[in-house]
Specification:
Layout (H helix, E strand, L loop, with lengths): L4 H10 L14 E9 L4 E11 L6 E7 L30 E8 L1 E7 L5 E10 L4 E11 L7 E3 L4 E3 L5 E2 L2 E2 L3 E2 L16 E10 L3 E4 L2 E7 L2 E11 L4 E4 L3 E7 L2 E7 L5 H19 L6 E7 L5 E4 L2 E5 L4 H13 L15 H17 L8 H23 L16 H23 L1 H15 L6 H5 L7 H9 L5
Parallel strand pairs: 1-13, 19-20, 20-22
Antiparallel strand pairs: 1-2, 2-7, 3-6, 3-10, 4-7, 5-6, 8-9, 9-17, 11-12, 13-16, 14-17, 15-16, 18-19, 21-22
The protein binds zinc ion.
């Protein structure tokens, strides 16, 4: 879709210019223009990408993750594991992404381990501190699947739907990750975003960032903007109802179609946003959106947006909302390589959930009980794995490829990951843990942190605890 006149006018007020004539832009920028067709289950779009080279090296080839390609028929790595095959509620269904052109580059090709990377060779090598603009035209086709990207029964999930620049490590380069079914195989750097999205008028949009809606004929034109976000995602539904509440300067919106306790869901989202802002440091954006949707897991985090499965109810729903809200600090604001160090954001999100319930007795969820459940489940897991395989790998700091099941991934990254922070709390006290997490958030908000950088924010006495959990020698 091309911007119409209304959008051109609106952009004068809402869109900062991509970069100055002198190329002084200090972060990369995604300008997406997309049109969704419900009939063909596809999203046709253009990404005008302004790359700002903030690395120490000259860059010649940019790497983009093509996550939608994991949903294609011949994918080596399926995003949906066997135990979640019911997510394909209508039987086999496939999707993918086609790149029809890349403009203002020397060459481009699709490669990587599983057709998951778009390599774009720039017209000329780009020096540090300089910007380059390319334009990628693509069509993303959605499978009928209740997953991060797909047409669900009552909603449409648009997670990881466009080419996104791979995370970058100094000295190593761009980081490739295939779509492992266990865990969140994502690693990207923060950037500026704008998304012009055209939908059939019957749909309402829940999304990362601020949104403006305008109707034109049988279409709804949305303009979504966000700053300092490492990704952008949306959920569409023809059945959405909306509740909202202001928390400080942040507008919290809850989009739902089935939830019979919607007021309570919105309330726990607001209270946890408030609590984490006080404990860890302020929330980064003007809006926080929670969307109920068809989803085979409990929930999923994106910057300023959480997806909550319409299949979770009661206390599980409350815990999921708090966990996903905690991810706004541990993933969305402070990022980490989720393929290599999933425990960093999952362990912290789960531990933060325990802290919230510990200070909010009215929900009837006790930190002590959550801790015991995690410990007992971990011991059972170890026993079962020893019986099955003769040994069990209990290292916390592991690549996603090392997990053979969701059961193992959950017990290690969520269970043992949260117990690590409980153990640190027992050793140094809650106040010092909270001040350490505040320090961590302040130092790395808008960036990606390494395990060493996280550990360095804690008192020196906690270092041995971290080491023993990460290398698997801790007895819990
Ligand atoms: Zn999580």
């Amino acid at each position: 879709m091309k911007n119409n006149k209304w959008f051109a006018l609106l952009s004068l007020f809402f869109l900062p210019y991509p970069f100055s004539a002198c190329g002084e832009e200090k972060s990369s920028r995604y300008d997406l223009t997309c049109e969704y067709s419900a009939e063909s289950r596809s999203l046709k779009g253009t990404l005008d990408f302004t790359y700002y080279n903030d690395t120490k090296e000259e860059q010649n080839v940019l790497w983009f993750q093509l996550y939608p390609n994991a949903y294609r028929a011949d994918a080596t790595y399926s995003p949906v594991s066997l135990i979640h095959k019911a997510a394909y509620y209508d039987g086999e269904s496939y999707g993918g992404i086609e790149i029809s052109s890349v403009e203002n580059c020397r060459t481009y090709e699709i490669g990587g381990e599983d057709k998951n990377i778009l390599f774009v060779t720039l017209r000329e090598p780009l020096k540090r501190g300089r910007t380059s603009k390319i334009s990628i035209s693509f069509t993303t086709t959605l499978a009928c699947v209740e997953h991060r990207l797909g047409v669900a029964k009552e909603s449409v999930n648009l997670g990881n739907f466009y080419p996104v620049l791979c995370g970058y490590d100094e000295g190593k380069g761009f980081y490739e990750c295939v779509y492992y079914s266990d865990g969140d195989p994502f690693y990207s750097d923060s950037a500026e975003y704008s998304l012009s999205l055209s939908l059939p008028k019957s749909y309402r949009l829940a999304c990362s960032g601020n949104q403006e809606r305008r109707e034109e004929g049988d279409r709804a034109q949305y303009l979504v903007t966000g700053k300092n976000m490492r990704d952008i995602a949306c959920v569409l539904s023809e059945n959405f109802q909306v509740l909202e509440e202001k928390v400080g300067d942040t507008l919290v919106r809850y989009y739902y179609y089935k939830d019979e306790n919607a007021e309570q869901t919105l309330s726990v989202a607001c209270r946890s946003l408030e609590y984490f802002s006080e404990q860890f440091g302020s929330y980064a954006w003007d809006t926080y959106t929670v969307a109920e949707t068809g989803f085979c897991f409990g929930g999923m985090e994106y910057p300023a947006l959480s997806l909550i499965s319409d299949g979770v109810e009661g206390t599980a729903r409350l815990e999921t909302v708090v966990h996903e809200t905690a991810h706004q600090w541990w993933y969305a604001m402070v990022g980490n390589n989720e393929c290599e160090h999933a425990w960093m954001d999952e362990g912290l999100a789960e531990y933060s959930t325990m802290l919230f319930f510990d200070d909010h007795e009215e929900y009837g969820v006790k930190k002590e009980d959550m801790e015991n459940v995690a410990r007992n489940a971990f011991h059972s897991f170890c026993g079962i794995y020893r019986q099955l395989f003769g040994e069990v790998d209990v290292k916390l700091d592991r690549h996603l490829s090392s997990f053979v099941s969701e059961y193992e991934y959950t017990n290690i990254t969520y269970g043992k990951g949260s117990l690590l922070f409980c153990c640190v709390e027992d050793a140094v006290g809650k106040e010092r843990v909270l001040s350490s997490l505040k320090k961590y958030k302040t130092a790395y908000s808008g960036k990606n942190a390494s395990p060493d950088q996280l550990v360095s924010c804690f008192p020196v006495g906690a270092k041995a605890i971290f080491t023993s959990f990460l290398d698997g020698s801790a007895v819990i």
